[in-house]
Amino acid sequence: MSDLINSPKVAIVGSKSLALADALGLENADLQECDVALFLVSAQDGIVSADLEKWRISRELYIPSLVVICDLLDSEIDFEDMTAIASKMLDPVVSPYLVLHGDDGRPAALINLERLEITDYTDGEATKRPADPEHIELVAEFREEHLEALEESGEDSFAAGLLFPALPWVEGTSIGIDQIKEYLDQVPTLS
């Protein structure tokens, strides 16, 4: 999103909307006037009813929407479990990335299921590398589900408001920020 004039208007829905807007370097727009919506889903607190109503509105308006799973530190529920919950409470979501954990159990990297590429954040900066064979085996089933969902929904289905990616975001780190920005870049501006 290098050109702010042509950047989409983004509505961020959820309890940590100000923190995510700050991390992304953007202003939070009104849902009815936005080009794309980010729905924060807490791994600790779940989805509140007011946010469910806003999800319903965004579906009626065919607003491209991302589900951003947050509060992944110190939570009993991990990213994969929370995406399953979001799929039941909202609409079916797809997971283009999975979270890989470090030796301390904390989120440390993301694996891109389409490209089988790991973005490692353990040194504080994003370092990309091909996935190791054990990671490829570990994510094989998730990758197959993801690729099938993409094939069924068609190209540009996210931008059309028909496909709902779920992405992780670990507050206070870079984990998830670049991935969210990649999806925001896919959305044409209406204004």
Write structural notes for this entry:
With 191 residues, the protein is of the alpha/beta class. The protein has a domain at 4-98 and 150-184: P-loop containing nucleotide triphosphate hydrolases (Rossmann fold, 3-Layer(aba) Sandwich). The protein has five helices and eight strands; from the N terminus they run βαβαβαββββαβα. It has helices at residues 17-24, 49-60, 79-89, 133-153, 177-184; strands spanning 10-13, 36-42, 65-70, 97-101, 107-112, 117-120, 127-130, 166-168. It has a four-stranded parallel β-sheet with strand order 1-2-3-8, sandwiched between helices. A four-stranded antiparallel β-sheet has the order 4-5-6-7, with no helix packed on it. The longest helix is centred in the last third of the chain and has 21 residues, at 133-153. The model has no long low-confidence stretch (mean pLDDT 92).
DSSP summary, beta strand count:
8
Q: If you consult CATH, what is the topology of the domain at 4-98 and 150-184?
A: Rossmann fold
Judged by helices, strands and strand pairing, the structural class is alpha/beta
Tell me the radius of gyration: 16 Å
Q: Strand-residue fraction?
A: 15-25%
CATH class value of the domain at 4-98 and 150-184: Alpha Beta
Number of helices: 5
Quaternary state reads single chain
Question: Order of strands across the biggest sheet?
Answer: 1-2-3-8
CA-based shape: globular
Q: How far is the first residue's CA from the last residue's CA?
A: 15 Å
Average pLDDT metric? 92
Low-confidence stretches: none
> Which architecture of the domain at 4-98 and 150-184 per CATH?
3-Layer(aba) Sandwich
